[in-house]
Design goal:
105 residues, mainly alpha, 6 helices, DinB/YfiT-like
Amino acid sequence: MTMNILVSDKQQVLQTTNWLEKMNIPFTHSGNDMNEEEVSVLSSKIDFNSLLEYREAVGKQTQEVISLLSPGQFRMKIEQNRIKQLFDENTVMKNSKWLAEYWSK
């Protein structure tokens, strides 16, 4: 999410190719501030082979985004509409507002 939504203003990998269904997970958020019950559900249901495939897809997309960046681009402030998109897509949970505030600095 950080490279796709925040840096390149693209759709995150999780929202493509039915990754949630493939990995058999009910959560769209980053996992920050998950409670014990949510961690238990995730751990018991996740398809680890699909998780590895997803990780590979994220890695490839991240490399593509990085290859298009200019020097100094990481110093740019993140646009507020991109931060808002994280909440609109339930990528960041409302009680993880601290994370979005960190990225907004």
